Amino acid sequence: MNMKLKCIIIDDEKMARNSLKVLLSAYCPMVEVIGEGEDEASVKKLFKELTPDIVFLDIQLGNNNIFTIIEDADYSNFKIVFISAHEEYALKGYKYNAIDYLLKPVDPIKLKEAVEKTAQILEKERASQNEIIENLQKIYAQNGPAQIILSDSRGSHVIKVDDIMYCIAERNYTSIILRDQPQIVVSKNLKFLEEKLSHPHFIRIHKSNLINIHYLKLLCNDDGGHIIMSDGKTLSISRDKKRMLLNSI
């Protein structure tokens, strides 16, 4: 299997982390360790800053239980493999859609199987996502440059979809930023605009932001939470939307 996987190892014992790294290097060379955590603070920091494909999680971190730490975390964009000496937590672990639950000391064959299963699942997910994008691009190419009609206090505006740079929502109002034209504020929420602009280069990157990726200038990697558009505007991006944006680009 040629697919490369980025991983994070969470364990409060350095020896356990090192042991897992040795096993991964020997049995799973397709896996790259991009981060390690040992307590609640480091775990939350890693989840915020990095975008792994797979996370190996120990159950007990000192006096803390990993389930209380990840309870409010967004783990939808990576796969989890629990590693623990406590077999009684296995059932609860699978409630987090874990790929596997491995007992310490880790069996290298079972570790390899868990990694290969993760790679297969990710390959299918990405193939499905690419197929959807390709189909949307074909539909858009057939329809040609679209126009939409949006109304504000001044009247109804006929707007070329390609001229829309991004949309910023605030409650039930949305500001539509246009290329070389004054912005338009409509009394519609962002969901309405997202459905109206159902084209592959429009992506909702945040609960308040919908962008046209043709006008994306910079994806900031300082904290992974911002982008800069071609007009210099800085916009927030949700952590779970970052991978989708990169795939679309």
Automatic annotation (TrEMBL):
Q: Which SMART domains match?
A: LytTR, REC
Against InterPro entries, the record matches this protein to:
CheY-like_superfamily, LytR-like, LytTR_DNA-bd_dom, Sig_transdc_resp-reg_receiver
Domain (Response regulatory) spans 6-119
Q: Which PROSITE patterns match?
A: HTH_LYTTR, RESPONSE_REGULATORY
Arranged from A to Z, the UniProt key words for this protein are: Coiled coil, Phosphoprotein
**Which positions bear 4-aspartylphosphate?**
D58
User: Which residue windows are coiled coil?
Assistant: 112-139
Q: Where is the HTH LytTR-type domain?
A: 148-249
Q: Name one Pfam family in it.
A: Response_reg
The superkingdom listed in its UniProt entry is: Bacteria
Protein name per UniProt: LytR/AlgR family response regulator transcription factor
